Amino acid sequence: MKNQMFAVALALTLGAGYTLSAFAQAKPDALVKMRQSAMTLQGKYFGPLGLMNAGKLPYNADVVARNAGFLDSLSQMPWDGFTEDTKGEKSRALPEIYSNPAGFKTAQDNFRGAVTKLVGAAKSGEGPAKAAIVEVLNNCNGCHKQFRSQ
Ligand code: HEC
């Protein structure tokens, strides 16, 4: 409690700018945890869409639209957690992420493009939405195959 109060007082004294830059310098193990958490949430919100596409859940346009919106934000979050200083941490990130940064960036951009398409297609009915779901899925799997250990 005392420590917490001290932390709050410190943050207030030093101002928001300092607090933000302190967050930007998160420790490597924390960065790994955060990037994995963003991935886990992508799994949570993409999962039902994959099941709908496979016919294992009834198609629900409202859920597709809501989850596509969540994915639009989540799909931007993991990437700044893949910093060089996390290389020594326990994780499934393959060394190719750091030896082929341009390839990793392309995989992110293609994935982001597929998610943007899904956001639009979610309003266009079941056929287009399912096609966009498949495209997102292919991007998840493609990147995992190249950049994540199995
Ligand atoms: C551009 C590459 C890339 C894309 C696209 C991508 N992932 Fe990942 N994902 C990774 C990497 C790399 C890891 C390993 C991270 C680690 O262990 O630090 C990972 C890990 C995960 C994990 C495990 C998290 C954990 O706690 O260990 C899940 C779940 C996951 N991804 C789901 C998804 C889903 C669902 C999508 C698509 C909607 C997706 N990912 C798209 C690269 C990607």
Please explain how this structure is put together.
The chain is mainly α and 150 residues long. The chain has a single domain, classed as Cytochrome c/b562 (Four Helix Bundle (Hemerythrin (Met), subunit A), Up-down Bundle), CATH 1.20.120. Helix 3 runs antiparallel to helix 4, helix 4 runs antiparallel to helix 6 and helix 6 packs antiparallel against helix 7. It starts with a helix and ends with a helix. The structure holds heme C. Heme C binds next to helix 3, helix 6 and helix 7.
| Domain module count | 1
How would a textbook summarize the main sheet? none
* Average of per-residue pLDDT values: 90
How many β-strand runs? 0
Distance between the termini: 43 Å
Short description, anyone?
By secondary structure, the chain is mainly alpha-helical. The protein has helices at residues 2-14, 16-24, 28-53, 61-74, 96-99, 101-121, 126-147. It binds heme C.
Question: Key terms for this structure?
Answer:
elongated, Four Helix Bundle (Hemerythrin (Met), subunit A), 150 residues, mainly alpha, binds heme C, 73% helix
Architecture blueprint of SSEs:
Layout: H1 2-14, H2 16-24, H3 28-53, H4 61-74, H5 96-99, H6 101-121, H7 126-147
This protein binds heme C (HEC).
Heme C (HEC) is lined by residues 32, 35-36, 39-40, 42-43, 46, 91-93, 107-108, 111, 136, 139-140, 143-144, 147-148.
